[in-house]
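Hi, here's the filled form for the chain we discussed.

Project: internal
Contact: R.S.
Residues: 373
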Amino acid sequence: MKDPAMTSQKVDEIPADYDLESYVFDLPEEHIAQHPLSLRQDSRLLVLDRGTGTIRHERFSHLAEVLPENSVLVTNVSKVIPARLQGHKRATQGRVEFLLLTPLPAIAIQEVGAGWKKAQVEGLLRPAKGLGPGSQIDLAGGLEAEVNEVYQFGRSRMEIKWQGDLGQMLLEHGNIPLPPYIRRWPGKEDTFRYQTVYAQDQKLGSVAAPTAGLHFSSGQIQDLKHRGHRFVELVLYVGYGTFTPIRVRDIRRHEMHAELMQIPPDAARELEQARHEGRAVVAVGTTAVRALEGVFARFGRIQPYWGWTDLYLYPGSRFQVVDHMITNFHLPRSSLLLMVAAFAGRKEILRAYEQAVAYGYRFFSYGDAMFIR
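And the returned structure, exactly as it came back:
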């Protein structure tokens, strides 16, 4: 039987760097972190030097010892919204779960009278079986949804109707959308631990956390600033583009979904000044990398921007802005693994992952971190 991930191109014609099956590694189930550590900065830190290929093992609390002097750390201050709602199909009363994918700032709201509002959004429906155009769903908080179009794997376009403030309704009735490899229902700890300490209430709208930032405590940030490091803030609303699976064998054929981002004027000025001064730009997480490199790819420089980016970074891509990267350990065959492989080299990343497994590192969202220099 033909592999559904295969394209018409023969497997032996795909160079290893572009073959999705080159981005697989063995990971025992017990290495997948199911809960955060008691203290954010107690996570481990694998330091990979791209120039020499050397690997060293540190604690995240010792980040100051591996950062270049007077670095500029770029953080994504978007905040995760509890965008997962429980409900039922109106026709059958069967249970259904809805995950809102459209960032709140991108939702075009229409007033329809009697206090009701409506909007067209994208979401994930589970289970999607039996749902098609015209299906109606009643969700927690009084939100009503009608399916307009169903795509693959439960992703759907639909019209939603509600009363009051949508963000507040989700905060009151929604659940934090923990990724599926965390095999438990969200608890009270996730309300604040699946957020960075610098996430801003007015930037509410991501459906997944920029997880590299989860390791920072407020005290560590203040200490790094005291040591001469600078923090610059941008926004990328983490959406479907970050975690959608790659379903083609030749990774060059994958298409990224766009995500909404913002680089404010003051951040653009600080970054341009930092580059002029020769300061190292350290991206905190793959979302910060995508925002920075996405703007540079569009304009040839760092400048203020509010809009969408569909930048796809994989081996062979050039990095124009980011000098160093703080990141977590990523899923096999994922676009995030491809990005770090583009930054450090496929063989080097897989070797680092192999060593991380051997040394008992914790993987994925609540797991340990890497510093790629």
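Let me know if anything looks off before we file it.
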